[in-house]
Amino acid sequence: MTGNGDRTLGTSPDFEAARHEMVARQIRGRGIRSQTVLEAMEIVPRHLFVPSEHTAMAYADEPLPIGVGQTISQPFMVAAMAEALSLEGHERVLEVGAGSGYQAAVLARLAIEVVAIEAQSVLAKGARERLARLGYANVQIEQGDGSLGWPSAAPYDAILVTAAAPRVPQPLLEQLVDGGRLVIPVGPSHGQELLRIVKHDGQTTRQSLHACRFVPLLGRHGWRPNSRDAKQE
Ligand code: SAH
């Protein structure tokens, strides 16, 4: 992959080639068809969103630690969730669980505006600085409990939750436009299903997309901090 057989891309960086291969094998190769999603995954420099000790693994087929017990999602999951939002470019999007800011950067290439909420202030600050440095001017990172949505900028055309919820938070449904899409992993800590929910005339339809495993969504409409499902094994 790096041309010299060195697995540690950190010491022999050829990040563009690694990213290209990631898209070919993990994303296109596993059925992601949206051209705009594929392009976004080709462009966003994932290696700049992971802590330096994990740079070498940035394009590997797995989630990676980003500090304070949290993780950046596996590349395929980032692409699958983005595709499930069916973005055409004109949308306003809410992300709950900004983490490193990577998913928000991908969404920022697919929509007009992204508001991303992160509960952990150290991550929110890091994501805000990183996105500003990389020139993502259409992303706003806020620190707070995203299980409540972010009412001051509502409604949203699409909402993505990147942490596992015990059930679908009602405020998120309320903050969707008619025709809006909510993509969210729902279920206990050992495994969830990724749901795609569409709101029409106040009613919702649900589709289950994938089995998945995310860190827990905490907060008012998430898990209680001391519950078993709020803990990561
Ligand atoms: N999308 C991120 C990774 C998400 S990991 C990325 O691209 O890097 C899930 C994140 O959700 C964690 O950072 C965690 O702190 C955050 N989180 C958990 N509960 C939350 C809540 N109620 N509101 C906002 N963020 C929350």
Structural commentary:
This protein has 6 helices and 9 strands; from the N terminus they run ααββαβαβαββαβββ. It is of the alpha/beta class and 233 residues long. The strands form 2 sheets. Strands 5-4-3-6-7-8-9 form a 7-stranded mixed β-sheet. The protein has one domain: Rossmann fold (3-Layer(aba) Sandwich), CATH 3.40.50.150. The structure holds S-adenosyl-L-homocysteine (SAH). S-adenosyl-L-homocysteine (SAH) binds next to β2, α4 and β4.
**Mean pLDDT score:** 93
CATH topology: Rossmann fold
Number of strands: 9
Give the termini distance in whole angstroms: 32 Å
What is the CATH C level class, in words? Answer: Alpha Beta
Strands of the biggest beta sheet: in what spatial order? 5-4-3-6-7-8-9
What fraction of residues sit in β-strands? 25-35%
Question: Percent of residues in helical segments?
Answer: 10-25%
Q: Secondary-structure element order, as H and E?
A: HHEEHEHEHEEHEEE
Please count the helical segments. Answer: 6
Low-confidence stretches: 1-12
Bound molecules: S-adenosyl-L-homocysteine
Number of domain modules: 1
Structural class: alpha/beta
- Supply the CATH architecture: 3-Layer(aba) Sandwich
Largest sheet: 7 strands, mixed
Q: Could you state the CATH homologous superfamily? A: Vaccinia Virus protein VP39
Q: What is the alpha-carbon Rg in Å? A: 17 Å
| Overall form | globular
